[in-house]
Amino acid sequence: MVNYTNLYSPKAYVTLDETEYKLVQQVAYPCKLKTGHTVFREEDAANYIYFIEKGHIKIYRNTLWGKTVTVGIRQAGDLIGVCEVLNGMSRRGYAETLEPAVLWAIDGQAFRKILQERPGIAVKVATALANRLRQVETMVADMVSMEVDRRLARALVNLARQQDASDEDGSIRLSLPLTQQELAALVGSCRQTVTTTMQKLKDLGFIETNKKYIEILNIKGLQDFIDR
């Protein structure tokens, strides 16, 4: 049975009520995936949209110069693969699980029919796509105007705020296992620079790290560092 809690979260990509979701569920099937599973690849036919019930999914592209750029990390409550299904194009990037995940594969043609017959759902999807576009525009602006240390700090703050939970002392331990190479792809840098920058943020007392996790010790300090 689907956990409806994610659908009602204010952070959800598309927030459907129970009736709307049951309608979508009729044209979907669950997929339990292991860490590192490729959900779709560039140039694949776009036959399905995926709802993330559990886990985190990395969306990335490979550039002509052989560099990997992560364009987003999606979490429970998000839909992925929407644009290509709606515009009839092949996939423009890759989606890969960062941890064990549960996805619901929604038949693309059936979903398009639902949008035509249920304008309320169509408006919610359009609003979500507009919000996603705004996020991408912010990311591009950061790439152009911010140094790597501030881009990395912003990425850590955004990941921390997705969790909506902190320890008693106010620290936030990121539950998402990200390597420094993955962080580099997320902020448009290289692993060596991210390694140096993470050490800088540690020295400033903003974060603590080990091989298993990253802990945000002072999220306000990180935000002030970004806004300086």
From TrEMBL:
Q: Which InterPro entries match?
A: cNMP-bd_dom, cNMP-bd_dom_sf, Env_Response_Regulators, HTH_CRP, RmlC-like_jellyroll, WH-like_DNA-bd_sf, WH_DNA-bd_sf
Origin superkingdom: Bacteria
One GO molecular-function entry: DNA binding
- Does the keyword field hold Plastid? no
Q: Which terms are listed as keywords in the entry? A: DNA-binding, Transcription, Transcription regulation
Q: Which residues form the HTH crp-type domain?
A: 146-220
Give all residue intervals belonging to the Cyclic nucleotide-binding domain: 12-115
Keyword DNA-binding on this protein? yes
PROSITE patterns (alphabetical): CNMP_BINDING_3, HTH_CRP_2
This entry carries the following GO cellular component terms, namely: cytosol
Tell me which Pfam families the record gives.
cNMP_binding, HTH_Crp_2
Q: What is this protein called?
A: CRP-like cAMP-binding protein
